[in-house]
Design brief:
seven-stranded mixed β-sheet, single chain, alpha+beta, about 25% helix, globular
């Protein structure tokens, strides 16, 4: 299977404000709010997701229904992965990995050398995925501050071949 694909899924850059996409953003925020206090949630608002330096991706099934989202916020030679979310009914089908692979492709095409992200300590599936594709813990970056509920990670866009 090519990078950025999963069986029956197409991933493309889209407007995060699409009527059928907004519920995924809301669900992701509600999930985070159920796990962490407000000061430990770092979701980008809709306007920020529409900025010129952001690639917002949506994975749709073969009937056109949105199944997952992910965003890449480009900041020069590094970028941050944001808004990774898969609808509950579509979990376990490799969508998170496919979305992350596609975000890496977008980063590579934009000349990004390093990917960074912040996720929560209770987000075990996300932490497992990120570690499996080469992310390692790093100090807080950009505007982030240390938070006992946050895990900061990074990896090279093109990791060294071993």
């Amino acid at each position: 299977m090519p990078l950025g694909t999963a069986k029956g899924i197409a991933i493309a850059v889209e407007d995060p404000g699409g009527a059928d996409v907004l519920p995924l953003l809301v669900d992701g925020e509600a999930h985070s709010a159920s796990l962490y206090p407000a000061e430990s949630n770092h979701h980008l608002p809709l306007d920020a997701l529409r900025a010129p330096n952001v690639r917002f991706l949506v994975a749709r099934d073969d009937q056109g229904r949105p199944q997952a989202t992910g965003a890449l916020v480009i900041a020069g030679d590094w970028a941050e992965v944001k808004r990774m979310w898969v609808v509950e009914a579509a979990r376990g089908r490799g969508l998170s990995r496919a979305m992350l692979d596609r975000l890496v492709e977008e980063a590579r095409a934009a000349g990004v050398r390093t990917l960074r992200l912040e996720t929560g300590t209770a987000s075990h599936a996300a932490l497992g995925l990120y570690a499996a594709v080469g992310f390692v813990e790093c100090p807080p970056f950009a505007e982030y501050r240390p938070d006992p509920l946050s895990v900061f990670m990074e990896r090279a866009v093109d990791p060294p071949h071993g």
